[in-house]
Amino acid sequence: MAEPVDLTNLTFARLPARTTPASAHLLAAIKQTEKHTFPSNEAFDFESELKKRTTVLHCVYHTKTNGPELCGYTVYVRSKLMTRIQKVCVAERFRGQGVGKWMVDMVLKELKKAAAGNVDLWVDTARVPARRLYGACGFKEVQMVSNYYSPGRDGIRMERNLEMDA
Predict the structure, then answer these.
(1) What is the rounded CA–CA span in Å between residue 49 and residue 33?
(2) Where along the chain do its domains lie?
């Protein structure tokens, strides 16, 4: 079993960025993780989507002697009325260690600082750990759509209003 990650040593960075060490390496790791984690029909098109100014990619990594190691990433799209979290992915070896919650909390802090109001996301009903994570981050299940992802794969829309936070 791999050594547990120390959450106090994680770095939360927006990509692509000239100021982030090994930005290209981290982006390549994100694309590889995406291929291994999600079905091909749900894979995010980073090449085209990151060109849009409303699409934001953050990664979480820790630095090892041989460079940064990807722990996870998030993608969200921001509009005037709503922010939609498109992707939350924790690299397999870091799951169950609090990285996902830490990462989502960092995204929500950033969005609140930027005066975002409502934040929502969609999750497959079968992804129980993901639903538990989002619930722990203050999201509420507000809508269910049958066959949202594909026949037999229902989706749940979860929402959080950052304006209601104290």
Answers:
(1) 17
(2) 7-164
Q: How far is CA 21 from the centre of its chain?
A: 20
pTM here is 0.91
d(CA 134, CA 142): 12
Confidence of residue 18 (pLDDT cuts 50, 70, 90): low
Amino acid at 86: Q
pLDDT of residue 24: 86
Other C-beta atoms closer than 10 Å to the C-beta of 71 total: 27
Task: Please report, in angstroms and rounded to a whole number, the separation of the first and last CA atoms in the chain.
Answer: 40
The residue type found at 53 is R
User: Reduced to 3 DSSP states, what percent helix, strand and coil does the chain have, rounded to the nearest 5?
Assistant: 35, 40, 30
Q: Are 91 and 31 in contact (CB under 8 A)?
A: no
State the architecture of 7-164 in CATH terms.
3-Layer(aba) Sandwich (3.40)
Segment 24-74, tens digit of pLDDT: 889 999 999 999 998 888 889 998 999 999 999 999 999 888 889 999 999
Residues constituting the chain: 166
> Nearest CA to 49 among 28, 25, 77?
77
Nearest to 106 by CA among 26, 7, 36, 21: 7
| 3-class secondary structure, 164 | helix
